[in-house]
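Justification of resources, computational component.

The compute hours requested in this renewal are based largely on the per-chain cost of generating structure records like the one below. Each record pairs the submitted sequence with a full C-alpha cell output. That output is archived, and it is also reused by downstream analysis tasks.
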Amino acid sequence: MYKVGRYFSFFIVLAVVLSLGVAAAMAGAVEADDPACNCGTICVNTTGWWSNGGSFNASSTPIQDAVNNASGGDVICVGNGVYNESVNVNTAYLTIRSQNGAANCIVSTPNPTYNVFYVSANWVNITGLTIQNAAGSNMAGILLDGADYCNISGNNVTNNDYGVYPHSSFNTTIASNNFFNCSGGDADIYCYNTGYTTISNNTFFGNGGPDYAVQTNNES
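The structure output for this chain reads:
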C-alpha cells in the first residue's frame, strides 16, 4: 500500500507539472504571435497589452489596462485597429502614441456621453491617433483637467462636441492636429481657465468656420 500511495502521489505531481508546462507553452505561443514591442515600453493591440519583453495580457480595454500598468516615462505604443474605449489617464510623464499613424489607429468612445481621453496628470503626450465620437453635450475627444505641460499632436479629432478641451491646464501644446466635425461645442479647441497654451499648425474641417476653431475663456 505504501508503494502504491507513493507512486500515485508521484503521478499526480507529474500530471500537475506537465499541465503547467502545457499552459506555459500555450502562453508562449500567444506571445510569439504578437509583434515585437519595438515602438514603446508597453505595446497594445486590439486584444490585449504587453510590456517590452513581458507576457501578453488579454483585455477588452487594452489601452486603459496599459495605462493602469504604466509608470512615469513609459511609452504606450498602440497598434493598428479600432479601440472602443474611454481612457482615463492619471499617470504623469506618459506618452500614448500609435505605431503607424492616425489613419491606422482609431480610439472611439463606446458612449457619446464619455470623453475619449480624460487626462488628469501632468506631462502627458497623446500623438498619432484618430480620436472620435464623444458627441454628447460638453464631451471632448481629449479633456485635460488640471493637467499641465501636456502635448497633443498629430491626431485626427473627429465627431466630438469639443475636440480638445484644456480645463485649468497650463503650458499645453496643441499642434499639427486635424479637426473634423467638432462643431457641437463652442469650439474645436476650447481653453477654459488656462494659460501659456501653444496652438499651431492645426487644420479644421466642417466645424462651422474659423470663428469656431479656437476659443478661450480665462477667469481672472
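The two ends are 88 Å apart (CA to CA). The chain has two domains: 1-33, 39-217.
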